[in-house]
Amino acid sequence: MALTLTDLTAPEGFERLVLAEAPEAGLRALICLHSTALGPAAGGCRMWRYADDDAAIRDVTRLARGMTHKNAMADLGLGGGKAVIFGDAATDKTPRMMRAFGAAVEALEGRYWTAEDVGISPEDMAHAAEATRFAVGLSGASGDPSPWTAEGVFRCLQTGAGHVFGTADLTGRRVLVQGLGHVGLSLAEKLAKAGARLTVTDINPAAVQDAAHRLGAAVCAPDAVFDQQVEILAPCALGGVLTDETAQALSASLVCGAANNQLSHDGVATLLAAREITYLPDYVVNAGGIISVASEIHGKPDAWRLERLTAIAGRVGQMLARATETGRAPAQVADEMVAAMLDTRRAA
Ligand code: NAD
Q1: Are 266 and 325 in a shared domain?
Q2: Are residues 123 and 156 in the same domain?
Q3: Are both 229 and 156 inside the same structural domain?
Q4: Alpha-carbon span 137 to 322, nearest angstrom
Q5: Which residue, by CA, sits nearest to atom 15 of ligand 1?
Q6: I want to staple 334 with a disulfide (CB 3.0 to 4.6 A). Which of 170, 281, 340, 341 is the partner?
Q7: In this structure, which residue's CA is closest to atom 2 in ligand 1?
């Protein structure tokens, strides 16, 4: 099978952007290494029907950069990277395509570690792993990362509540969970157990009914999230939910959820801060999953992932303290913490 790797011009500040093509296997993919300053780049592989190459490049670069931030803040000894495969995961994906993708990852000689993301399952990763040593998130290894993500978000939410409401006790606290998938449902269960007054929403009516029934949650329509009177919002569905408009409409004082790229643009963090809404940056609070994956990369035991998971909430506490001292938004503080880590390592 012919596989060609072509280096494309990487955007400024990025290390590498590679186009991988294996026409016989139906593979066309981009692999982006944003930074390997802190270790080999690690981040999932997404399969998506992109409108054009520019859309795929925008997605893979934004996601790779996000992984640098996430891995740095979680202290994983890993840099940031991401891969995207062009195509429809439901109809175009084949084991042969995944093996070709694995071969492309292998050709990068360990500078990039791949795992599942949207459209890619543990079974797909197992096919990729037939052709590379650098595929993780395999069944029987570190397992499903979602419970780790949910636990990390829950602990950060408690830390955030302590900061905003003066107590981490969630009894009676009005919390809205947007999205009841792998992470959101697990988070909703933890919140219900902690005594929160839950409101839930999802575009999947069965998931909503289940949560309403089992967890005693109130329900709101997917498009009514920002009309609800709540104290905490936990976005666990899509990115981009916090826009100039929704930030103005939001009643909550704390935002802490699993969804990646919750802010539609960086300025929304300032807008939220101006309204005295504490937004805990997504890439800090949702690192539980990559921590779990990193334990597989580094061959570390459960104690290692638990220690790192516990550290996330501690870091959120430091970030909030620094934000209060300096009068800046927690998101700005987090970005600066990452920049300082990268500068120190580059200088070394
Ligand atoms: P998932 O696909 O299992 O769940 C997403 C849920 O959101 C689904 O139930 C879906 O029906 C629902 N949804 C979609 N659009 C919606 C809308 N407009 N309104 C309400 N609900 C909607 O995904 P997941 O693994 O639970 O991940 C959730 C989010 O967290 C994603 O943004 C993901 O990128 C991010 N994340 C996940 C992990 C992980 O370990 N799974 C790690 C880090 C970040």
Answers
A1: yes
A2: no
A3: yes
A4: 34
A5: 237
A6: 281
A7: 181
